[in-house]
Amino acid sequence: MTQLDKKIYRVLSADDEYWSRENIRNLIDWGTYSIEFLEPACDGEEVLKRIPEEKPDILFTDINMPFIGGLELLDKIHEKYPELITVAISGYDDFAKVKGVFTSGGIDYLLKPLGKEELVEVLTKALAILEKREKLRQNEETSILQEHKLSSFLEDNEYSGVLNGKLYNPNRQVHITSTSALSEVSMILVKFHDIEKMTRKYGHDMLQMSYSYKSELKKMMEDENCVVFNYSDKVNEFVIFSTTSHFQIHRFTDNLINSIDIGSVGPVSVIVHEQPSSLDDIGIVYREMISCLMTRPFTRTHCVIYCESDTANNAIKERIGRRTQESIESALRQCQRSKLIYNIFDSCSFEECDTWTYFEMSQFITRIMNVFEENCRDNSELSQIIAEGKDAAEFGLRRIDKDTIRESISLMIDSSCQSGENDESDGSIGSR
To answer: How far apart, in whole angstroms, are the C-alpha atoms of residue 118 and residue 409?
Structure first.
């Protein structure tokens, strides 16, 4: 028989004779069949008392027992616990009793003294039934989950359309049941910056990942009427519409930040726009929230930003001025590695970039890349390296990972200097 390794089933036996109880206990090694053999019962009354608590999957019962006979016991079990598989055991080959066993839902009738071969045979039959049931249950659960995931995906598309200002057509079927839920709402944007980490635990199954994150966020929100959806244009962005109180929103942000492990999912930004907004304004509010997101510190820690009217208009420092940019261009033309290092990393205080805003880092990378791309325009091999470095730097930007950004820029410096005629021999930058 097939040994079950996914589920341990429970067997309960009942007999008023001690030797019979011990015989079935010791007849086989139940553990080899992935079965837990429960302490045998002495009569039918004891069986009925123990079933609710111990929840056996298979019952072996003697037909002739005091208080409640075997057939009466089988009738009661068949009525109250129809899923419990029952097998009758008797010292008498009585046709009427055999018939009664099957009428009462039993799967077999065994005669004493019980032998190992026939016990294994009936046990195989019982386990096959249980395995089939378990597979059907799992298939049903999987089917239901897939339906939920698909429905969730379709809802994401509908709500994302609203966010983009593409109000749904009333003449076609949609999954948003009521737009009243989107009237006078506060909005919360939850952005996971490290997509690789957030999807890895779900085997990169994006539907499962999205469904799981949304379920958890809604649970944390403690608002049955809130709407949580995965913005279809950004797999790592989740938007929440809520009519809940200021206190509940703050409690949600605290719970979210405190419950997320940076090591497993990376840094998370939470942007809160508490001022109630109408359906028509949702797209505008979202863009305001993205502007606020640009002001988050460039550090791999969680961050909560509350949108204020002047949040997105804070002064942004220019990390690379015109003079520094010209110095970088000159160093590139002359293949001066040390000068490049100084101008790009030291003069800009790159090691302190966790005090920069996200926008400042984005601006920094853009200007650096523009200089390198302009410098290698006539070198196809170098252009390819620079393009790869740019992709890596932008990846580091999205993940809020300064080490990746530093390594990508260092690679471009090394490659640019090595391609020149006046290459300095001051070592690789990657070791800084």
So the answer is: 74
Say how far apart CA 346 and CA 338 lie, in whole Å.
11
Q: And the tokens for 192?
A: 């996971």
Right CATH number for 9-137 from 3.40.50.2300, 3.90.550.10, 3.10.50.40, 3.40.190.10? 3.40.50.2300
**Contact call for residues 106 and 82 (beta carbons, < 8 A):** no
Burial group, residue 264, by CB count within 10 angstroms (0-12, 13-18, 19+)? exposed
Instruction: Please state, as a whole number, how many other Cβ atoms lie within 10 Å of the Cβ of residue 247.
Output: 8
**Is the Cα torsion angle 248, 399, 207, 264 positive or negative in sign?**
negative
Alpha carbon distance 25, 245 (integer Å)? 61
- CA–CA separation, 294 vs 291, rounded Å? 5
Taking phi over 0 as left and psi of -120 to 50 as alpha, with beta for the rest, 15 belongs to: beta
| H helix runs in 164-313, sequence order | 195-200, 206-221, 246-259, 262-265, 282-293
**pLDDT tens for the chain, residues 1 to 432:** 444 345 789 999 999 889 888 999 999 999 888 899 999 999 989 999 999 999 999 999 888 888 887 788 888 888 899 899 999 888 776 655 666 666 667 788 888 888 899 899 999 999 988 888 888 787 766 665 565 555 666 677 777 777 776 544 444 444 444 445 556 778 899 999 998 888 887 877 878 888 888 888 988 888 877 888 888 778 889 988 888 888 888 999 999 999 988 888 899 999 999 887 776 677 888 888 999 999 999 998 999 999 874 444 445 567 787 888 889 999 998 989 999 999 999 988 898 999 899 999 999 999 999 999 988 888 888 999 999 999 999 999 999 999 999 999 999 999 988 865 444 444 434 334
Give the DSSP letter of residue 167: P
Nearest in space to 226 (alpha carbons), one of 235, 236, 215, 210: 215
In the chain, where the domains are located: 9-137, 179-313, 322-431
What tokens were used for 156? 């994401």
CATH superfamily of 179-313: Reverse transcriptase/Diguanylate cyclase domain (3.30.70.270)
Hey, what amino acid is at 365?
Answer: I
Nearest to 342 by CA among 364, 323, 327: 327
